[in-house]
Amino acid sequence: MKMRKILEKVQDFLDADSRSQQQQKDSISEVLEKLKEKEKKLQNELERGADAQEKDKLERKIAVCHAQRKKGLAILKQLRTQHSE
User: Fold this and answer.
1) pLDDT at 63 > cutoff 90
2) Which residues have a Cβ under 8 Å from the Cβ of 50 and sit 6 or more positions away?
3) What dihedral angle (degrees, nearest 10) is formed by the CA atoms of 51, 54, 57, 61?
């Protein structure tokens, strides 16, 4: 095999890794966007008013969504810093 073909194969291998990382970042971004929308929807339901039991339930759901978004943002940030290095 010539050196050029070997270099091309190595480049293809490296590009595949960056493509998979990009796909992973894109999918995480989509999930984060959906979680943000869900959190807003739950917040709107909470503001409309409900009984005490429903209010507690909505607050717990909002807290879970918020925590998941924070974790997702941390992972996304970590992926971005790994990619830039």
Assistant:
1) yes
2) 58
3) -110
* Predicted confidence (pLDDT) at residue 18 exceeds the cutoff of 70: yes
pLDDT at 22 exceeding the cut of 80 = yes
CA distance 35 to 71: 12
Distance CA 35, CA 72 (A): 10
Residue 1 has pLDDT above 90, yes or no: no
CB-CB contact of 28 with 79 (8 Å): yes
* Tokens coding 74: 């941390």
CA distances from 37 to 14, 21, 31 (A): 35, 24, 10
